Amino acid sequence: MSGVGDGTERSDAGVDEPGWEVDPDDEPGAAVVAAVGRQIKAWREAAGMRAAEFGTAMGYSEDLIYKVEGGRRIPRPEFMDGADGVLGAAGKLAAMRADIAEVRYPKKIRELAKLEAAAVELSAYGSHNIHGLLQTEEYARALFGMRRPAYSQDEVERLVAARVARQSIFSRSPAPELSFVQEEVTLRRHLGGRMVWRRQLERLLEVSELRHVEIQVMPTSRDEHAGMGGEMQVLKFKDGSAVGRSEGDFGSRPVSDPKYLRIIELRCGIIRAQALNPRESRAFIEQVLGET
């Protein structure tokens, strides 16, 4: 089986297998994909090419071309480059790469990424696994691969790509203040196997060296713990507004009401106070890494 550039894989027999299907509940994303598909079809017809001819020139089946043109398949940016060259669009189709890149990830993740991109401060507590912004690509892939019912391989890769893309927050300028508290068990669970786990610990140490990032560890031995309700996160913005989410509270949905935010912020503050400080936490992570 060989990979292809439109979000699908093609078997040696030349039959396109399921790829990035459009989520019918994602109306904004579906509208963008449909508009891109119409543009591709218009350029193909203007070039005097049938769908089968275009597919042959691109290296894909006629059926796949119809799916892309009909807005039923999300093409990867590389597909847009190939179509631009084949159809002589002089950069007009390639210019739509940004539109596709915007909607290629699930709607919920796009919305989260926008909030993170605008935040000037982020505080998060992770109880079950390493926070998404701190995950290596291998760790994220292993984590999504464990989901039951299982994701398809393409869904896994799509989610991994979205998670990795969010990590551009670390290189933003001006840099946001980022604070993470990780439960000790998340550092000791070998998700993905020993080597994936080791590289994840090394990634935590690498990120902890950034001046605008603090990583703290909550030891399992603590007698008191304000985070027993589960994961939580608070994002603060330049205009003074904020959004928070606490697992199991307020329907586990993002909230911006000050009275609810106060509860989440209070818990986050207590959790940080109960955890090891950043210097102690770094030493703890180094110790766990040395035990492998």
Continuous helix count: 12
Note the run of SSEs as H and E. Answer: EEHHHHHHEHHEHHEEEHH
Q: What global shape is seen?
A: elongated
Strand content: 5-15%
Q: Structural class of the secondary elements? A: alpha/beta
What order do the strands of the largest sheet run in, or round the barrel if closed? 5-4-3-6-7
The stretches of 5 or more residues where confidence is low (pLDDT under 50) are 1-19
Average residue pLDDT: 89
Q: What kind of sheet is the major sheet?
A: 5 strands, mixed
Search tags:
alpha/beta, single chain, 5-stranded mixed sheet, two-stranded antiparallel ribbon, disordered N terminus, 12 helices, 292 residues
Descriptive report:
- The protein is α/β, with parallel strands linked by helices.
- The chain has twelve helices and seven strands.
- 48% of the residues lie in helices and 12% in strands.
- The chain has a five-stranded mixed β-sheet, sandwiched between helices. Strands 1-2 form a two-stranded antiparallel ribbon.
- The protein has helices at residues 27-46, 51-58, 62-69, 77-87, 97-103, 107-118, 137-145, 153-166, 184-188, 194-208, 258-274, 278-290, and strands at 2-3, 9-10, 119-126, 177-183, 213-218, 232-237, 242-246.
